[in-house]
Amino acid sequence: MIFIDACFAKPTPYTPIWLMRQAGRYLSEYKQTRAKAGSFLNLCKNVSLASEVTLQPVEILDVDAAIVFSDILVLPMEMGLPLAFLAGEGPHFKHTISTLNDVKNLQSGAYKKLDYVYDTLSQVRAHLDKQKALIGFCGSPWTLATYMIEGQGSKTYAKSKSMLYREPQVLKALLESLTEELKLYLEGQIRAGANAVQIFDSWASALECSAYMEFSWHYMKDIAHYIKSKYPHIPVILFPKGIAGYLDKINGDFDVFGVDWGTPMELAKEKLGGKYVLQGNLEPSRLYDRESMEKGVDEIIAIMGKKAGHIFNLGHGMLPDLPRENAIMLVKMLKEKTKR
Ligand code: 1CP
């Protein structure tokens, strides 16, 4: 598989590409399937519909990898926090974590309740082109913890950070239990057919450097090390969003570093290019305009070259109102421009 070869820095016929959040509302096909499912969570839990939306972007865009359709928040949900997706408002947990007792009351063995994710992976792997990779994923302990503590997305992360500085032992207990569940969850995804795994640390940038290393990166590394020691042939991709200033501190046992759009690719290459394959990092909003998109692609190729060591992606997820024609064009353009 071209994508897997690229993750291990082996030469490929062109630079492989996939797009974070490549399944979603910018595709009318997704909206139709989601309507059939009735709700977002029903869609995640319905194996045949979730498989369908996983495969849609592969067929429509011709990307080199599929990412299983699910959400990072199904894991905390299965740890015993009821989850709702409110129309227009995003995810919402009715019960939140604020004390050590709350952490102790979380159910262990959540990874055993996620058969709908494993079954979707198996079904997709059975239908996916042999040359295309299937990516499994999870949220980072820190990013998941912010939703469990705040109850929803946040601008300030006030409750999470207040816990970090006032009662770090409570936050650490939560991060540790998440870490143990996530190791087994990713392992389950690999056994079900995932060819690579990515950990999304979407809210990395909420933390100052020392806090980031101690309360997020430490746990990401622990999960990555666990997977790499048991499954050396499975690439592990880490995507911490918004930590351009901390790249000197990045280390650990993983294969691919996901570069967000706020981190200049030149800087990522200088600091990490010798150690890790880099994935990224086109600013998603460039897809609003074809000329801006092409210019962005050219700039990234000029930095990363056409040799091994790069996987093309956006620097964060697809937005619901981006024109699909430009996403299709992006994939085609990238393959032509990077042909060896
Ligand atoms: O249909 C809808 O209205 C729901 C929109 C939606 C979609 C399409 C949500 C709700 N989740 C998803 C799918 C999803 N989420 C995928 C699918 C696979 C793919 O990439 O095609 C993935 C990988 C995720 C991961 C995810 N969920 C992250 C990490 C990645 C990122 O974008 O930073 C995060 C932070 C979430 C939480 C979440 N789920 C949904 C929303 C709207 C949010 C973000 C809310 C917020 O900003 O706090």
From TrEMBL:
The record marks 71 as: Transition state stabilizer. It catalyses: uroporphyrinogen III + 4 H(+) = coproporphyrinogen III + 4 CO2. It comes from the Bacteria. InterPro entries: UROD/MetE-like_sf, Uroporphyrinogen_deCO2ase_HemE, Uroporphyrinogen_deCOase. One of its GO terms (cellular component) is cytosol. Gene3D superfamilies: 3.20.20.210. Its EC number is 4.1.1.37. Transmembrane segments: none annotated. Pathway: Porphyrin-containing compound metabolism; protoporphyrin-IX biosynthesis; coproporphyrinogen-III from 5-aminolevulinate: step 4/4. Substrate binds at residues 21-25, 71, 147, 202, 316. Residues 16-25, 135-151 form the Uroporphyrinogen decarboxylase (URO-D) domain. Keywords: Cytoplasm, Decarboxylase, Lyase, Porphyrin biosynthesis. One of its GO terms (biological process) is protoporphyrinogen IX biosynthetic process from glutamate. It is found in: Cytoplasm. SUPFAM superfamilies: UROD/MetE-like (SSF51726). Pfam families: URO-D (PF01208). Homodimer. Belongs to the uroporphyrinogen decarboxylase family. NCBIfam families: hemE. Catalyzes the decarboxylation of four acetate groups of uroporphyrinogen-III to yield coproporphyrinogen-III. This is Uroporphyrinogen decarboxylase. The lineage of its organism: Bacteria, Pseudomonadati, Campylobacterota, Epsilonproteobacteria, Campylobacterales. The gene is hemE.
